[in-house]
Amino acid sequence: MLLDLIRKQQINIYDIPIASITAQYLDYMQRAAELDMELGAEFVYMAATLIHIKSRMLLPRDPALEEAGEQEDPRAELVQRLLEHERFKNAAEMLHEKLLVEENVWSNPQVKYFLDEAGDPELAVTLFDLVKTFQKVLERAKSRPVYQVNGEDVSVPQMIQYLRARLESTKAGEALSLTELLERQSSRRAIVALFLAILEMVRMQAIVLSQKTPFGDILIRRHSRYAEVFATDQVLSLIEKDYH
Q1: In this predicted model, what pLDDT tens digit does every residue of 92-121 receive, in sequence order?
Q2: 155 with 168, same domain?
Q3: What is the CATH number of the domain that holds 150?
Q4: Count of structural domains, the chain
């Protein structure tokens, strides 16, 4: 996520504006906390690392070390870690593209026995991609005219039923656009409820999220376990209890 923040803003990775990047990183973590998302220990560790680097850069430099040329940039270790991560990421993308090319140039009928649903050529969606889409829709929703409807009470289970109806109205293999679904909602409450419903359905392995291209629209499809998940009404009863 940190590398994404740097690259999208066309920042020189060897001269990271640590104060600005730290603020943006902590803002993302705050937004995730407000949505009750568990980010994991690595996010907290990186936030602590950024704050530590920022505090070191605020300290006055030692003149003696500067003259001797031994004063190390506090950002140096972070830069090396980011570059190493980027190298692994680029290598993975190159191997993925190589696989796609080989599949299009040469085919073997037996290959299908070694592929499962996870072998889809589309890109996996991260939590960061999901939150970015959600934030964009919320920002655009602020400029829309607001119509007050008395008694509106949209729940997460209701939105799960709404999403099920939309998915079941599509043909096999077709996908729904996450952005389009969110923008169709008439209120902020409905947008948030739908977003939480999507997270719940991902957790239950009822749906799969993917992207055609990096930073592209997020697509929603039925998981292979979709029918199994909703075989009974027990799942919805448990969710209703959780959000009561």
Answers
A1: 777 777 776 666 554 444 444 444 444 555
A2: yes
A3: 1.10.10.580
A4: 2
Tens digit of each residue's pLDDT (9 = 90 or more) over 117-148? 445 555 567 777 777 787 788 777 666 555 45
176-212 pLDDT tens trace:
999 899 888 888 888 888 998 998 888 888 898 888 8
What is the full DSSP assignment across the chain? -HHHHHHHTT--GGG--HHHHHHHHHHHHHHHHHTT----HHHHHHHHHHHHHHHHHHSPP-HHHHHHT----TTHHHHHHHHHHHHHHHHHHHHHHHHHHHHHH---GGGGGG--GGG-SSEEPPHHHHHHHHHHHHHHHTTS-----TT----HHHHHHHHHHHHHTSPTT--EEHHHHHHT-SSHHHHHHHHHHHHHHHHTTSEEEEESSTT--EEEEE-TTHHHHTSSSHHHHHHHHHT-
The model's pTM is 0.47
Structural domain ending residue among the three candidates 113, 134, 165: 113
> In this predicted structure, what is the pLDDT of residue 114?
41
Q: Which domain holds residue 107?
A: 2-113
